[in-house]
Amino acid sequence: MSVFDGLRFRKVYSPIHNLDPRIKFVYVIAIFIVAILFFQIIPLLILFFMQIPFVLLARVQRQWLRSLRGAAFLATFIFVVNVGTTYFTSGYLLTAPNVENAAAMTLRFVVLVESFSVFFLTTSPDHLGLALEESRVPYEFAFAFTTAVRFVPVLAEEAQTIMDAQKARGLELEKGGLLKRIRNYVPVLIPLIVSAIRRSLELAEAMESRAWGATKKRTNLYLLKLHKGDYFLLAITVGILATAIYAHFFVTIPTITQLI
Amino acid sequence: MIEAQDIRYSYQNKIEALKGISLTIQDGEFVAIMGQNGAGKSTLVKHFNGLLKPSQGKVLVDGVETTKSSVAALARNVGFVFQNPDHQLFSETVEEEIAFALKNFGFKSEVIEDRVTWALNLLSLTQYRKTSPFLLSGGERKRVALASVLAWDPKTLILDEPTIGQDHDQKEKLRQFIMQMQTQKKTVVTVTHDVEFVAECNPRVVLMKDGKIVADGVGKEILTNPALLELSSIVLPQIAQVFTKLAPLGFPKDVIDIYEAKAIILKAKESKQGR
Amino acid sequence: MAIIETKNLTYTYPGATKPSIVDVSIKVEKGEFVLITGPSGCGKTTLCRCFNGLVPHFYQGELKGDISVSGIDTLKHHTYEMAKHVGLVFQNPENQLFALSIEKDVAFGLENMGVPREEMRRKVDWALNQTGIYDIRERSPHEISGGQQQRVAIASVLAMEPKVIVLDEPTSFLDPLSAEKIFDVIHKLNREQGITVILVEHRLDLTAKYANHLIVMDQGMVRFEGDPKKILSSEETRLIGVGIPKATLLYQMLRKDGLNLGDSTPLSSEELADQLLEALTPE
Lengths: 260, 275, 283
Prior knowledge:
The structure holds three protein chains of three kinds.
Chain A: H1 2-5, H2 21-37, H3 41-57, H4 61-89, H5 96-121, H6 125-134, H7 139-167, H8 178-184, H9 186-209, H10 228-250, H11 256-259
Helix pairs in contact in A: 2-5, 2-10, 3-5, 4-5, 6-7, 7-9
Chain B: E1 2-10, E2 16-25, E3 30-35, H1 41-45, E4 56-61, E5 64-65, H2 71-75, E6 78-81, H3 94-104, H4 109-122, H5 138-150, E7 156-160, H6 168-183, E8 187-191, H7 195-201, E9 204-209, E10 212-218, H8 219-223, H9 226-231, H10 238-245, H11 258-274
Parallel strand pairs in B: 3-8, 3-9, 6-7, 7-8
Antiparallel strand pairs in B: 1-2, 1-4, 4-5, 9-10
Helix pairs in contact in B: 3-4, 3-5, 4-5
Chain C: E1 4-12, E2 21-24, E3 27-28, E4 33-37, H1 44-51, H2 54-58, E5 62-69, E6 72-73, H3 79-82, E7 86-89, H4 102-112, H5 117-130, H6 146-158, E8 164-168, H7 176-193, E9 196-200, H8 204-207, E10 213-218, E11 221-226, H9 228-232, H10 235-240, H11 246-256, H12 269-280
Parallel strand pairs in C: 4-9, 4-10, 7-8, 8-9
Antiparallel strand pairs in C: 1-2, 1-3, 1-5, 5-6, 10-11
């Protein structure tokens, strides 16, 4: 199942992958704030193109473009709705500023989606789990996250095995109308769920047997240390935020229609 | 008859699991497919009921190419019992579980009723007819899974690692069960790494390594060939281990049966005393 | 003093109609290699879980009788306290590894106990080396074989430096060669580190030769306990349904037909072969 391939630990070592996930997350939040700050299309365009060097440095162009394609449908929808509402409310007038505004709204959505996408594409689950562990999030959540990620490929394989086992008993998953096809999946879902429950029990036994809950002050084998690159990214983030706030309050940003 | 003609198979991640396998299994044969974990045993047998289709080459079941048939149609004649019964069990009662496949294959309800009773009987599960399969022990669940496959009386039975987690008595019952299937002229193919179990049954053995067949023949000969077994990371059966070390006494090396071993040793003792 | 001692241990799972173990009284000395065997459902798995407190703390239900492990009464202590003394390795390799890298998994118990990083690093590396998996320590658990996974499980228990390691059918899912490797690791830990080992197994042909203390259970009760050679040569043991090693069976068959190979019942093919060579080599 190729969907799950993306969640497997992919050891792609690029400078971006090695950055501290906490700093990366701060950067993403900053982009989020800036995107919300502006209505005008020019700053949003700048924001959008600013992601590209990161994407190229991290060598995740293909996956990034794929996620862009995924966002395309919703983006088009947003654009059409925006143009549509201004069209109808302004008395069937289609003006350049209105179209530009709709484009800005759409771009804002795209920038938000893309910044999160870049984050997840350049952060391995290991790293993410570690960041969660070291943050002030209770350990149970970090543990739940990493364990879930760890078992995704296992579950995927098991789902395949169960489907095979039932197909070998004559189950034809694709046969019948919609309702019948949904019912066809019951013999696949039930063993999957039962197996998940059994697995949780076995995991719990193993956890208990390895001193789970012994102290509230858990230690960690690994330590996330901030490096030069992280400080650099932090500086960039602060720079972006500062520029954005200044521009928002003190600079009147022209629209493209005004420039033309 | 099951025929594999120079088949190759690669998984999605490009790993080639089968690298040119040619194999023919006649009706009524008992074949044990052996090899290390990862040799391609399960991948191979999944071609016999169409779950997997070869990337190259052909697989023919009773003359029909598996690519030209659905899994359901092939499953009608090739019953596959998976290693973990919990990957199959989902019904509210054992009865429904056994009837599942029969319903899928379009059997009439009277026939289903009869077949379920017969299968329950065959595997000593009659008392559990109305029990939930989830409440049964591990060994009992394995029997339910087996019963649910036997119920539709397939010509060929494929057993994937049937001895895992079984104790001595359970394995003995399994062995007797396979013998019973043999007398009913069924083809039995078992994927296993349990050398002792295979030694007791002495079937035809197909030994695999890294996606290829490295040996195909009489169980006794293959299981007592140390070079072959080392190549495919299999352990010699205990009796064979003993006899390998008795080479200085001039004993034959291809002994896997305990009674044969006893006879040979007693004879040697007599001839020694006779001197 | 015995490292594990139980007196009339009886336990019923909540909702069960009859007890899983009945009146179990055993004594395990420090450094022993104990083998527990018996037909499916005989209670060996339940007994294992008594040793580290999973029974009764995790499973609830009522545990009657006395049990003392490493001097501690498991009834009066949390399971996490027992982890320092008793390590438990389970049957399914996949379902006891949670972390995204092997060494993080091995460190799991130590992290839970709040061990400082330096000390943790040392213990983790030691455990990885003892089980021969140091080279794969950065891999993820799903990428490795079942045999390697079980070695990770053993390492993660070993890192906590317990005095006793209990293994519940650890090789069920493994092929015989991988199983042998696991038994080698366990045997080495017993011999070199003096760790008391309690191994639950069906495959006596592979394991009987390591044990110096055998416990045979059936229907929740201990039927035989003591010297493996004596127990495995008795007819009664065979009747319970225990899989006697072929070498032992052959020895007995020959003895019945007049060929006595000596007083020591062989438990492995090597032992039997040696006996046969001695008896049958022309002078």
